[in-house]
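Researcher: Quick test of sequence recovery. Tokens follow.
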């Protein structure tokens, strides 16, 4: 409990500094891929890695990866927009911009609709590239004597992601033998809130909801302007269920369509300033729905600690690979307090400084990389990579650079588990 108290004091002291250092909206405006948030494709922008600590060698990796690029997860994204555009045609309400978008959309939607939820070709390539880079960065881990286990949630896109990752890994390290499974009993680890009822566990949460609701503010600020670009008369919208659902799905489509389509589908439907606002609204919405589940990820935290304990006790090399979903990573990142993201702000406007959904694009991943002394016994060190970039854990005292003592993390995790 003392460690948790120290963590709270340290993070509170850094609130003002973080808000001053990071202008997150400017970051998003400078890279519109980030405006796509969790729906955007993986970004290969990791910085070079810090060399291994002197006298240490990597021997084990504990990984969690989100499935790769997919079509929209819900066919309502495609059918809602289609229904609205067809109603606009019927009522004669399309502007010239609306007619152009209608024509592009009608030529576009059929294949994505049929493939709703499926992993795209880009999704396969993402996981193949991530595993190849892992072997290139940490070849000492991938020995023929090592123990390698890959597990996924029961989702077909997670299973396909696991298969692509492992197939690529075996091309890079052909003597490695990997076991794979996608059992329903995995779900308490791979997607704890969606586990079978017999396995579900509840943990005490101290999550607090910051106000006011940014999503409502953004909608009121921009909906009329965007609707006027598309429709000369909006009355038909009320007859088919209103405009909020349409707007949500329109932004979801914009966020995700580059996972499977290379053309410009939207033209001038949105301005960049509007997209930055919509990003902040969606970021806030996901903070409420995903980050609020941080303590429900304790079964995954337990699995990380227990698997690492077995690997350390075994004295050999190996890896545990896990494949699942954004709902898990967006809760696990604040649970682990990565880069100070465990802080819970009181103001909705401050959420973006501590939670950024663009940290969880398609194929997002966390990698705990473990190191042991080359000779003799000694303390086990690790570093944590998020999307292949080194990150910090402010609740721990680093030994050097991005490297932490595993014993410190295990003790901190024990405190978190006991407290919730």
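Model:
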């Amino acid at each position: 409990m003392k460690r948790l108290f120290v963590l709270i004091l340290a993070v509170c002291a850094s609130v003002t500094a973080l808000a001053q250092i990071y202008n997150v909206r400017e970051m998003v405006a400078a890279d519109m891929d980030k405006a796509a948030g969790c729906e955007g494709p993986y970004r290969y922008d990791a910085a070079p890695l810090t060399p291994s600590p002197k006298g240490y060698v990597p021997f084990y990796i504990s990984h969690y990866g989100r499935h790769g690029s997919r079509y929209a997860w819900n066919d309502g994204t495609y059918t809602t927009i289609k229904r609205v555009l067809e109603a606009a045609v019927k009522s004669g309400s399309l502007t010239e911009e609306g007619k152009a978008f209608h024509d592009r959309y009608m030529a576009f939607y059929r294949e994505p609709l049929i493939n709703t939820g499926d992993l795209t070709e880009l999704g396969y390539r993402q996981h193949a590239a991530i595993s190849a880079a892992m072997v290139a960065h940490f070849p000492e881990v991938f020995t023929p004597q090592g123990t390698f286990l890959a597990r996924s949630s029961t989702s077909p896109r997670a299973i396909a992601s696991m298969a692509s990752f492992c197939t690529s890994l075996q091309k890079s390290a052909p003597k490695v033998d990997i076991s794979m499974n996608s059992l329903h009993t995995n779900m308490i680890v791979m997607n704890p809130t969606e586990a079978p009822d017999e396995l579900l566990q509840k943990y005490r949460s101290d999550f607090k909801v910051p106000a006011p609701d940014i999503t409502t503010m953004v909608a009121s600020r921009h909906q009329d302007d965007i609707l006027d670009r598309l429709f000369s008369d909006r009355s038909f919208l009320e007859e088919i269920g209103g405009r909020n659902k349409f707007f949500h799905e329109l932004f979801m489509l914009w966020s995700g369509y580059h996972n499977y389509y290379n053309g410009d589908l939207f033209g001038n439907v949105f301005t960049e300033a509007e997209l930055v606002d919509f990003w902040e609204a969606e970021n806030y919405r996901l903070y409420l729905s995903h980050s609020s589940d941080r303590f429900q990820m304790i079964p995954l935290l337990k699995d990380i600690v227990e698997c690492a304990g077995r690997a350390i006790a075994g004295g050999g090399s190996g890896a545990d690979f896990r494949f699942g979903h954004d709902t898990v990573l967006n809760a696990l990142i604040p649970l682990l307090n990565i880069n100070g993201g465990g802080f819970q702000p009181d103001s909705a406007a401050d959420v973006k400084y501590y939670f950024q959904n663009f940290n969880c694009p398609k194929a997002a991943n966390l990698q705990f990389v473990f190191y042991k002394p080359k000779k003799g016994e000694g303390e086990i060190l690790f570093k944590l990579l998020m999307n292949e970039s080194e990150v910090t854990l402010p609740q721990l005292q680093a030994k050097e650079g991005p490297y932490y003592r595993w014993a410190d993390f295990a003790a901190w995790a024990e405190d978190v588990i006991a407290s919730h």
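Residues 153 and 190 are 5 Å apart (CA to CA).
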